[in-house]
From TrEMBL:
Membrane topology listed for this record: Multi-pass membrane protein
Keyword Cytoplasm appears in the UniProt entry: no
Protein name in the entry: Amino acid ABC transporter
Key words of the record: Amino-acid transport, Cell membrane, Membrane, Signal, Transmembrane, Transmembrane helix, Transport
One Gene Ontology cellular component annotation held by this UniProt entry: ATP-binding cassette (ABC) transporter complex
Any one Gene Ontology molecular-function term assigned to this protein's record: transmembrane transporter activity
Organism whose genome encodes this protein: Liquorilactobacillus satsumensis DSM 16230 = JCM 12392
Ranges that cross the membrane: 290-311, 342-364, 454-479
Entries under CDD domains matching the protein: TM_PBP2
Amino acid sequence: MKTKSLWLFLCVFVCALFIPFQQTQAATDGYLQKVKDQGTLVVGTSADYPPYEFTVKQNGETKYVGLDMEIAQKFADNLGVKLVVKNMNFDSLLVALETHKVDMVISGMNPTPERQQSVDFSKVYYSGDQYMLINKKDLARFKTIKSFKNKTIGAQTGSLQYTLVKQQMKNNEIKGLAKLNDLVIALQSGKVNAVAMEEPTARAFAENNSGLVAINPKFKVDAGQTGAAIAFPKGATSLVNAANKTITQIKQQNLINKKYIPQAGKYMAGNTKSNSILNYWTYFAKGIEYTLIITVVSVFFGFALGVLFALMRLSRNKLFHWLAVAYIEFVRGTPLMVQVMFVYFGIGAVIQSLPALVAGIIAVSLNSTAYVAEVIRSGIESIPAGQTEAARSLGMSQKLTYRYVIIPQALKNIWPALGNEFITLIKESSIVSIIGVTDLIYQMQLVQSATYKGVVPIFIAMVIYFVMTFSLSKVLGYFEGRMKHA
């Protein structure tokens, strides 16, 4: 008996020591203190999901509003810090969280078991049913999941709705896109027969578009999958606990139903009244500005590095030649989108202060380098070997030969191809919108979200891109003509 009592005493003693240690460890994980020290709470969201999060125009500036933004602001106020919102694609949010680009994610996100393996979640702050958005003309045809048999269903990639459609509508084709606005456009144009989304969001789109209607198809949803919660990095217990205190406060005061949802409704109603595209010309102007900044800087560094790698590939030094070949082939063999995400989320995980704009410029510049290097190499190799031999026989060094004989002639030969690369760069720079760079495509998506119009902003963006590329082609053509007469 004494032995058993001794063992019981030891177990209780160890537990008594271990539990406070666990609590202290959780309280001092550093995440909460880091937010307070930096004075900002950086929040990741996908602002195309009314009434959870969407955009409005106030005094010519973009403002992120909605239920989730009100909760995020309340949380930031309770911590005594400034709220900073980063808008990006929904399926990039958890990557941004895991690479510490944001402190938390609030975007109508469901705390599914799969997500809980990678990140920690707060308590559920709001629950809504899973609905379908359909064209009003199809209301008599579609009532339940079974009535959609052999139809095409749209859902946001990475969302609970995408999983539900995949699991419970196996006789259907599923079309996944990153932006709900694009899915609604697909619905209106007949590319999909319905779009799965949460009830508040479906009702929001239906109320602001007379041709759409929201229905409840009766998805079967597990209790652990429903509801929206805030996502935090794995192990950020101090932030989770602080967020839970804010959520408890919000629920006790019933702020969601009394204040946040009605406020979101007012913003949406205001958007509907003033959703003329002309009211958003400043968005497109800002998009043009950032697109040109990315293009100009990327052209400069892409050309400079392209010359370097072209000379390295032509070098007799085997190491330089091998490095140039390896770099050029690797870059040309991988998509630009993947490169942009790697620079921002991969390298950015090491250099956490790396801004999205800088990451975008670096990725686009490095991508352009590979193509420019090949264009320049082909131009240099097109010059007859006799030109080099003649220059060297006159006593010119290899450096002077390249500078005054080879490069000028090669540049004249490759100018059309080089110009085409620069024009392509304007269009390809649009890919940086996936990491939240406010280029033309990013601004176009904001206008879509704010006006509930899908096709018109796309058409305007197309015209703007055409004007920019056509203008550049004329400038390049002018210099090409000057070279021919030189």
